[in-house]
Every structure is written in C-alpha cells, then in structure tokens.
Design brief:
- With 132 residues, the chain is mostly helical.
- Helix content is 61%, strand content 9%.
- It is built from four helices and three strands, in the order H-H-E-H-H-E-E.
- The chain has a three-stranded antiparallel β-sheet with strand order 1-3-2.
- The longest helix is centred in the first third of the chain and has 49 residues, at 2-50.
- The protein is rod-shaped and about 120 Å long.
- The termini are far apart.
Amino acid sequence: MESNTTPLILLALAASVVIFIPIVVIFSRSRKQNKKIAEQTAHGLQQGENAHHKPLYEPSKSTPQVSDKAVIEVAVANNGKVTSTVLCAKLDISVADATAKLESLHNQGIFTLDNTDSGHLVYVLVDLDLMK
C-alpha cells in the first residue's frame, strides 16, 4: 500500500510546488512595487508640504489707481447710485478694488449705504447737487 500512495504524494507535492512558487514570486514583486509607489507618493507629499501654495489666479501687481472723480462720475451717470459690480464693469477694476474704493469714499462721507429690496448694498451719493 505504501508503494501506491508514494508516487501520488510526490506528484501532488511537485504540482503544489509548481503552482505555489510562481504565486509567491508574483506577490513578492507586487509588494515591492507597491512599496516603491508608496515611497514615491510619500516623497511627493513631503515636497508638496514644503512647497508654497501658488494660487491659480494672481491679481495684477500693478492695480490701477482709480480716482475719486472717476467713481463719482460713475455714480452720477447711474442716478447717484453705484455698486461694486457696476464700478468694476465701468472702470475695468477688480470687485475687491471697487469695494475698497467705495468703502473708502463711504468712510469719508461721500456715499451713504442703502439696501435694495433684494438685499444688495448700494452706495448712494450724498451730494445730489451733482445730479443737475
């Protein structure tokens, strides 16, 4: 009985070795590749942490200076009322610059603030004599 089972055991052992060794090799290569990818990713993230964030849009360094007169003229042309977006469109400046300019003139008493029914802020010219 021993002689009949021995070749079968040896055959099963040989078959398992033939199947098992390539699987081990594939998984070990895969682990090495995954480890290498993980190291590259970690290195890239470290470089990203050290790098400064660059915004997608950088405002122009030479922001055009808008005169008080230009802002008042826009307001007069709009029946004494102006918003940041109107000023932006008429004077070709950024909304941030338009808002800053209107706030500055408001703080100087040139404009008052009013809310529209829709909740938007409107700067209203104080000196309505300019409307004549």
